[in-house]
Amino acid sequence: MAPTPNETDPPWIGSDEQSSTDGGTPAKQARKPLGPIWLALALVVLGLAGYRIYAMLYLAPAATAQPVERLYLCSETHKTFNHTKEIGDEVPVHSPFSKKQTGYPCEPCYKTKKDNVYRDQPYYVTLNKYFDKDGPTVCPDCGREVVGHNPDPRPIHPDAPTTRRAAVSGGD
Ligand SMILES: [Zn+2]
Prior knowledge:
alpha+beta, three-stranded antiparallel sheet, two-stranded antiparallel sheet, 33% helix, 18% strand, disordered C terminus, binds zinc ion
């Protein structure tokens, strides 16, 4: 009596030898070798997905922890310069203009004394909190309040300010 194909054997073991004795089910034989390949592919896909999740959770913060360059204002010369904040840095930082520790973070102010009229180049203002002063910071140029992450109030289209400017000056 010939041994019947064993159901408990893994499909990748002995499938070639059995094809001679067990000729009745070609469809079954054709499917068998694919099993481990799909299993391996599924494992690879799962592994890649797992790695991507791991990278998102643990590798991305390391990348965003890079020092960020930002704009500083020299309180003595009122000139701006870029400075990359490093660990241990304290405000005020060294200013290349005064050659002293007079560099403070600053906010751009685009406003002017007229409503809806804006500067092309911002006036830079250091917030009161950096000078240990209480109360809202007032822009020395336009007299309006400046806040952290000061919003840019200018219209998106470059043509808009000129039309508004004409309307405002006509109304004055
Ligand atoms: Zn201003």
